[in-house]
Amino acid sequence: MSELYDGVSKHIGADTDVPAGDIGVGAREIGYMYGQYKRLQNEYTGVLTGKGLTYGGSLVRTEATGYGMCYFVQEMLKDKGQSFAGKEVIISGSGNVAIYGAEKAIQLGAKVVAMSDSSGYIYDGNGINLDTIKRIKEVDRERISTYVDSHPTAIYKEGCNGIWTIKCDIALPSATQNEIDKASAETLVKNGCIAVGEGANMPSTPEAVEIFLNNKVLFGPAKAANAGGVATSALEMSQNSMRYSWTFEEVDAKLKDIMINIYKDSSSAAKEFGYEGNLVVGANIAGFIKIAKAMSAHGVAY
Question: So what's the pLDDT on residue 274?
């Protein structure tokens, strides 16, 4: 933040660029950067989201991407007369997106049977015990392999990509980019997976996406399905502007509405332009049209 300071007022600000956390940048790092921003700028604004609750952060921000992903997938399933209820789910990763994606999937009636970290994955046919995962990852900061110490009937295997060989109804890749390749996508399809929702940024390779679409697997692309995090960052900024804090339930309800609308916009655009069911194309078109209309209104030809 100190290095950015020469141009900080030009490049970082509530109405310019608002940084947020990601892999390796959590609440602690955001706190340090925000503290330095305040010292340098001598102002309190909605800059840097994912802040702590005692200095302008928002409830649900930690859960937002995982919750939002499940709200999107639930709408995707609902359009086909399906739901999370009674489904077996595998979720890669064990960070915020994966943990709270699992939490919401369980709340919606699913059974999460597998999760992973960079070293390997666990399978628990009885359903993952989320309290244990939270203790391991959020308190003890240990590897996911220690899950089997508390749940001896569970299985741990080295190599995180092996998680996609597990039979499931719904797959939620929530770890990192390119984690589902062509072979993994083919295995998921062969094993009867009916829906994939991307919680990480571009976790499926282009070849994997093509396989999902060609086999009529419901596919929620990251640019739409994992928008809950940035959406709740915007809600955090709104609260900062008002000097007000919404309850958990209020923020969660707003997040759910946002994700439902993102799904509807993507689905409607796909249908309107002849790609019904293809949410990759739908999300691209919906985003493009929104930008193009704004450019036109501003007097920029397109």
Answer: 97
How much is the pTM?
0.94
Is 253 domain-assigned? Answer: no
Give the model confidence (pLDDT) of 107-130 as tens digits. Answer: 999 999 999 999 999 999 999 999
- Classify the C-alpha dihedral 205-98-102-278 as positive or negative: negative
Residues 117 and 39 in one domain: no
Are 49 and 189 in a shared domain?
A: no
Query: CB atoms < 10 A from the CB of 259, how many?
Result: 27
Nearby residues of 257 by Cβ (< 8 Å), 6 or more positions away: none
Provide the token pair at 169.
């109804």
**Two tokens, residue 233:** 């960052």
Query: Among 23, 182, 14, 12, which Cα is nearest to 94's?
Result: 23
pLDDT of residue 43: 85
Q: What does the chain come to in residues?
A: 302
Asked if 17 and 42 sit in the same domain, the reply is yes
For 27, the domain range is 1-57
Last residue of a domain, one of 225, 240, 261: 225
pLDDT, one tens digit per residue, over 20-44 is 988 888 889 999 999 998 998 888 8
Whether 213 is in a domain gets the answer yes
Which of 181, 203, 225 corresponds to the end of one domain?
A: 225
Q: From residue 65, how far is each of 98, 104, 154, 171 by CA, in Å? A: 9, 11, 27, 16
- Residue-averaged pLDDT of the chain: 95
For the chain, what is the domain count?
2
C-alpha 285/C-alpha 228 separation (Å) is 19
